[in-house]
Design brief:
The structure is a homodimer of 131-residue chains.
Chain A (H helix, E strand, L loop, with lengths): L30 H11 L3 E6 L2 E7 H9 L23 H11 L3 E5 L5 E6 H5 L5
Antiparallel strand pairs in A: 1-2, 3-4
Bound molecules: S-adenosylmethionine.
S-adenosylmethionine sits at the interface of chains A and B.
Chain lengths: 131, 131
């Protein structure tokens, strides 16, 4: 059987090889509950999902900001809505550049319909240079 | 003039070439004040210093944890005391491995007397693979 293989296929490391499972929450989730999930799972970033689609992201940095401003309530009041994301087949170098250019430390991984498939963090990327 | 050069000197990228300035606080700093510094400076990690020496680290994740547990008070009540750190001349691969093995996202950079010279984060390391 013949299979078409793009050139240099093996040399390009893509996002799906480094992404990890993402826990997601709804915009109505309480900030304290988001904090609890971060603590329980040992994570810093939670994609926010509505009707199965990515609508925001909340990070431990946003929670620190809420503490500094004495804000309470639902995640939707403090989440970032303009989410920068990546796709499973995007090269890791492109994902790393998106993080650098936007001064962020994680990208939700979505499909063409913006359903969340996972997440890739700067921690996952820096493992690539660990020896 | 002859200068001794170790082999492969130029090929080894070291921590001092990627580290950034660190803002430090004292153990007596209020948690809210630490949160405010993270927000103002756009950072996730603050080394805690006493008499000029590194004694702990507090991160936005620790602040999320304090929110989840409804803890208030001084940084010393929630900081991590057993800090994993690095040195300016450590290869970045070694720093990346320390982060991976300890599941952490930053290392304070210290001198031989544990004075804080800067910090290196997984965000700084993942920039090395950005294109
Ligand atoms: C600008 S960064 C500054 C701190 C640090 N560089 C970091 O990434 O944690 C913090 C803000 O970035 C937002 N953020 C994180 N990941 C994001 C993403 N993929 N798209 C858009 N905003 C994001 C967070 O919601 C937070 O408000």
């Amino acid at each position: 059987k013949e299979v078409f293989k793009p050139m240099r296929q093996r040399e390009v490391k893509v996002v799906k090889s480094v992404m990890v499972e993402a826990y997601t929450i709804s915009p109505e989730t309480a900030i304290e509950e988001a904090a609890r999930i971060m603590m329980d799972k040992g994570i810093n970033h939670i994609p926010v999902v509505e009707e199965g689609r990515l609508v925001g992201i909340i990070t431990s940095w946003d929670i620190a900001k809420a503490v500094a401003r004495n804000r309470k309530g639902a995640v939707k009041s403090i989440m970032t809505r303009n989410v920068i994301y990546t796709h499973p087949d995007e090269p890791v170098e492109v994902a790393a550049r998106k993080m650098e250019q936007n001064n962020i430390s994680a990208l939700p991984v979505v499909d063409s319909r913006k359903r969340v498939l996972g997440i890739v963090t700067s921690e996952d990327l820096s493992k690539l240079i660990a020896r």
